[in-house]
Amino acid sequence: MQKITAAITAVGKYLPDYVLTNKELETMVDTNDEWIVSRTGIKERRILKGDNKGTSFMAIRAAKNLLEKKNIDPKEIELVIVATATPDMQAASTSAFVATEIGATEAFSFDLIAACSSFLFGMSTAAKYIESGRYKKVLLIGADKNSSMIDYTDRATCIIFGDGAGAVLFEPNTEGLGLQDEILRSDGVGREFLHVKAGGSMLPASEETVKNKLHYVHQDGKTVFKYAVSNMADVSAKILKRNKLSLTDVDWLAAHQANKRIIDATARRMKLDEKQVMINIDKYGNTTSATLPLLLNDYENELKKGDTIIFAAFGGGFTWGSIYYKWAY
Ligand code: UT7
Q1: Residues of 49-79 as b/e, b for ≥16 C-beta within 10 angstroms?
Q2: Ligand 1 center to residue 116 CA distance, Å?
Q3: 40 lines ligand 1 (CB under 6 A)
Q4: Which one, 83, 112, 199, 230, has the greatest CB density within 10 A?
Q5: Helices and strands, number each (H, E), in the chain
Q6: Tell me, which fold does domain 180-326 have in CATH?
Q7: Ligand 1 atom nearest to CA at 40
Q8: pTM for this structure?
Q9: What is the mean pLDDT of the segment spanning 261-272?
Q10: 221 in ligand 1 pocket by Cβ < 6 Å?
């Protein structure tokens, strides 16, 4: 029997219209464009405005963009995974709402929550369903409304994050393309350095938690930066070695867009040229689960069948990993 690999066959995206520039941030907190660009590489980010709009609002639109581009009947989708760190609500699966709204009435669905590594872990998960031979069309959406948990008076976090969504479709491939190998990791040591303290089961919402601003993202940036640089570069170098890939074998690095300096450090460790590094952090900032699928959308026209891509991500928890992938169209 022919070996089945799992390959991305279509991509889609949604970005909110509102552009929050560094200039506007200068009017909100004590910061400046020069500092933000030189320390992070971010020039602007998108913010989802309006009442009653959650992560699903963007996830639905990214999925519909993909379905329309590829002219797919949503009833053919068998599984919808929403990778996110900002689900619409507690207790109700965001993915179920998304699947119903896009017309994927024959699918089952679940949310996958692993902070900034949600989409990377989602790629691994989606691929397993395809590789098993049982599923033929798995829709993976990475979407986050980070603005829902950011304190716009805290200059340490508000300059970094943005909102957005990207979707990819995984289908079986018999040419040996798609996901080749993965190294995925986590370490609970990271919990104290990057979290939203309240609103979960440990510290439910109360007057006290709101007063103490515990529903906002807290990040010890310096510590997270150090772990991100060494861990993301480590797994990326390791996956090259394990697969006996030389420099000339790698066409692209698609790394989580958290800070341009972290991406550059990973690329240096892999000895990649700047032209091989996918970048869009300047336009969108850190969109958590949406960074990797947004990269694929932005670079779709430059990718060639058979191109080797190394995906890498690092996020809260800590969670991180690397995927070796061959582009299939
Ligand atoms: O996606 C999930 C994983 N997250 C990450 O990977 C993020 C990792 N961390 C980072 O990207 C960086 O640590 C930040 C971008 C968050 C911060 O950059 P940094 O170079 O680590 O800055 P810092 O926190 O060490 O601050 C350096 C200086 C400080 O001033 P002093 O103490 O040296 O006088 C800060 O007060 O810069 C100051 N500062 C700012 N200045 C202007 C901090 N934030 C700002 C700001 N504007 N927004």
Answers
A1: eeeeebbbbbbbbbbbbbbeeeebebeebbb
A2: 18
A3: yes
A4: 83
A5: 11, 13
A6: Peroxisomal Thiolase; Chain A, domain 1 (3.40.47)
A7: 15
A8: 0.97
A9: 93
A10: yes
**Catalytic residue flag (residue 256):** yes
* 5-177 and 180-326 have identical folds: yes
pLDDT digits (tens, 9 = 90+) for 172-210: 999 999 999 999 999 999 999 999 999 999 999 999 999
Which of 153, 181, 144 lies closest to 315 in space, CA to CA? Answer: 144
Report the pLDDT value the prediction gives residue 1, as an integer from 0 to 100. Answer: 65
pLDDT at position 81? 99
Percent of the chain residues topping a pLDDT of 70:
100
Per CATH, which fold does 5-177 belong to? Peroxisomal Thiolase; Chain A, domain 1 (3.40.47)
Q: Residue whose CA is closest, atom 15 of ligand 1?
A: 40
Dihedral sign computed on CA atoms, order 132, 134, 138, 144 = negative
Q: How far apart are CA 256 and CA 253, in angstroms?
A: 10
Instruction: Report pLDDT digits (tens) over 126-179.
Output: 999 999 999 999 999 999 999 999 999 999 999 999 999 999 999 999 999 999
Q: Where are the domains positioned within the chain?
A: 5-177, 180-326
Hey, which of 39, 191, 224, 319 would you mutate to test ligand 1's pocket, going by the most ligand atoms within 8 Å of its Cβ? 39
